[in-house]
Design brief:
Elements (H helix, E strand, L loop, with lengths): L20 H6 L5 H7 L13 H18 L6 E2 L1 H8 L6 H15 L4 E2 L19 H19 L4 H8 L3 H10 L11
Parallel strand pairs: 1-2
Helix pairs in contact: 3-5, 6-7, 7-8
Protein name: Type 4 fimbriae expression regulatory protein pilR
GO molecular function, one term: ATP binding
Subcellular location: Cytoplasm
């Protein structure tokens, strides 16, 4: 005899994407109801190339873990190795950094990580300050909107008039760029 047992569970889901989900919803390529279920508490984490200061911290963490895993003494970091990593854009993001560091720990025989231990191209395609066109445009737009909101003391209606756009357009752009209510006040 087959019996069924119902068990209540409390589930939290963490989902990540690099896609613009509101645009995909508008195009009918992502379910709107699913988006609102997933977007209860959004966290925006910029790519590693925009967080250059995190590279050394993460790299040291990954090297410590790799040394523990391989049961060896912790390695030291040469300044040149840190500089080399910080000058690379990491298109593969944190996973790529982790892979680079794990490989370097395996190759390191004298206890000090040096640039030659890392598979960084001699002429990196981009550097950490080199953003894509879309990222540059969004950063410029963000700066303009924040400056205008500051000049208008957070009054969004006045900011929209100053910028020559409708209030609705301004609110849409603020939401798209994730500029929250802390940068404005109710009109």
């Amino acid at each position: 005899m087959l019996k069924f047992l119902c068990i209540k569970v409390d589930v939290r889901i963490i989902a990540a994407t690099h896609r613009d989900l509101p645009t995909l919803i508008a195009e009918g390529r992502f379910r709107e109801d699913l988006y609102y279920r997933l977007a209860q508490f959004p966290i925006e984490l910029p790519p590693l190339r925009q967080r250059v200061g995190d590279i050394e911290i993460l790299a040291r963490h990954f090297s410590d873990k790799a040394c523990q895993h391989s049961q060896r003494d912790p390695v030291q970091w040469s300044r040149a190795a840190v500089t080399a990593l910080s000058g690379y854009a990491f298109p593969g993001n944190v996973r790529q950094l982790k892979g680079f560091v794990e490989r370097a720990v395996l190759l390191c025989e004298d206890g000090e990580l040096k640039p030659e231990h890392f598979p960084i191209p001699a002429n990196p395609i981009s550097n950490p300050t080199c953003l894509s066109l879309r990222e540059r445009i969004e950063q410029f737009e963000r700066d303009v909107l924040l400056e205008c909101l500051r000049d208008c003391n957070g009054n969004r209606s006045r900011a929209a008039r100053t910028l020559g756009v409708s209030r609705r357009t301004l609110l849409y752009r603020l939401a798209h760029l994730k500029i929250g209510a802390a940068h404005g006040r109710p009109d």
